[in-house]
Design a protein that fits this description.
By secondary structure, this protein is α/β, with parallel strands linked by helices. About 45% of the residues lie in helices and about 15% in strands. The chain has 2 domains: about 200 residues, 3-Layer(aba) Sandwich (Rossmann fold); about 130 residues, no CATH class. It contains 14 helices and 8 strands. The strands form 2 sheets. A 6-stranded mixed beta sheet has the order 4-3-1-5-6-7, with helices on both faces. Strands 2-8 form a two-stranded antiparallel ribbon. The two termini are about 25 Å apart.
Length: about 375
């Protein structure tokens, strides 16, 4: 009831039915009250031999962010942001080091997923030092020492290529509090011999090797289908605001990411639904999250920016509609959480029977292992599933 009243109050404030004082708006947030953050930049080699790596990243994105969703720092829930770069593709400009930023640090993981599925591979030069330098200097990293800031770079060519020396780029990153975790796609010893381990050591990170040719297989469960259905149902509780074009794009991005996850594998679709149910999922330009997060006052939106579902309603009816959708969302999230617990237990039992695939051999397990290792240094803890 307390949470419901809180949302109602915020909604009333957003309509201007309750006034906030200017002092409350302008009062700076004390350091101890600031929300912590976890920021990841993923740098993927998209040269011709890396199709397996890209497929692993696509199919396991939601598994990785579900691990992030359990993180807490001193009991506080962190903001999660992920950036994406590709490098090593010959169709990218040579003048830019055959690399590009695909997404800046963002909470909009729907769009990041779409961009990840759109990646294509072809031959090129893999300049690790240059793409690390670009991510270090080109992203809007938090300036807080309490934030967890990580770069994950994955590839299979020598770390030494290019004009930017990794022995300069990696120490420069850690000077800004950004640890470099290197993932070599091939034999562990080869990665050590070609500089990948040294690059991680120079920036207080972890070195891991994976088999990018392994197809990631998560056991099917009796709960996958229902979780995916609930993942689609919860979409009806989102109210997108902004221009008509923006509203359509936000809804399309949400639905598109659902389809991509489902087409990847039943497990990926279920993992995405799990993230939606965690309370950590953020759809771009959702009015309910924006009001709760005090990012938007509904009274300040132009009529053409109001969600389509609200336009024919009175002010009081709009408040009631927003409250109804928030309540529906909470109920679906609870159903997802209950099914996810059962699914996790089922998978854990099935995985005990599978001993043929070595641990930490794929992109997702490498990222999660390094993430948890680095997070401890910033006093982050992860809840058991």
């Amino acid at each position: 009831m307390r949470k419901f009243f809180h949302v109602t109050l915020l909604a009333l404030i957003s309509f201007g039915l309750i006034q906030q004082t200017s002092q409350a708006k302008e009062k700076p947030q004390p350091a101890e009250a600031r929300q912590p953050s976890i920021e990841l930049a993923i740098l993927l080699d998209t040269s011709g031999s890396m199709e397996g790596l890209i497929n692993q990243a696509r199919s396991q994105l939601w598994k990785i962010v579900n691990e992030l969703a359990t993180a807490r720092q001193n009991g506080k829930v962190p903001v999660m942001k992920v950036a994406l770069y590709e490098y090593g593709k010959s169709s990218l400009p040579a003048s830019e080091g055959y690399m590009r930023q695909i997404m800046p640090l963002t909470e909009n993981l729907d769009q990041l997923s779409e961009k990840l599925f759109a990646l294509k591979t072809n031959g090129g030069e893999e300049y690790c030092g240059q793409v690390i330098q670009a991510a270090t200097n080109g992203l809007n990293w938090s300036d807080s020492d309490e934030s967890l800031k990580l770069i994950f770079i994955a590839g299979n060519e020598p770390f030494t290529q290019g004009k930017v020396d990794y022995k300069v780029a990696c120490p420069a990153a850690i000077q800004k509090g950004i640890a470099i975790n290197t993932i070599f796609c091939g034999p562990e010893q080869t990665g050590i011999q070609t500089g990948w381990k040294e690059g991680a050591l120079l920036a207080d990170g972890s070195y891991l090797s994976i088999n990018q040719g392994v197809q990631v297989v998560t056991p099917k469960t009796p709960y996958d289908k229902r979780l995916s259905e609930l993942g689609h149902s919860i979409n009806k509780t989102y109210l997108f605001y902004g221009s008509a074009k923006s509203q359509n794009e936000s809804a399309g991005s949400q639905g598109g990411a659902d389809k991509l996850a489902g087409s990847s594998s039943p497990a990926s679709g279920a993992d995405r639904a799990t993230f939606k149910g965690s309370g950590r999922y953020r759809a771009k330009a959702d009015l309910i999250d924006a009001i709760v997060g005090k990012k938007v006052n509904l009274k300040d939106l132009k009529e053409e920016e109001i969600p389509a579902q609200l336009k024919k309603l009175s002010k009081k009816e709009r408040v009631a509609f927003i409250e109804k959708k928030q309540k529906e969302r909470t109920a679906i999230q609870l159903q997802i959480q209950q099914l996810t617990k059962k699914r996790n237990q089922f998978i854990a039992e099935e995985m005990k029977k599978q001993t043929s695939q070595p641990q930490n051999s794929t992109f997702d397990t490498a990222v999660i292992k390094a993430l948890k290792s680095q997070a401890v240094k910033n006093n982050f803890k992860f809840k058991a599933k």
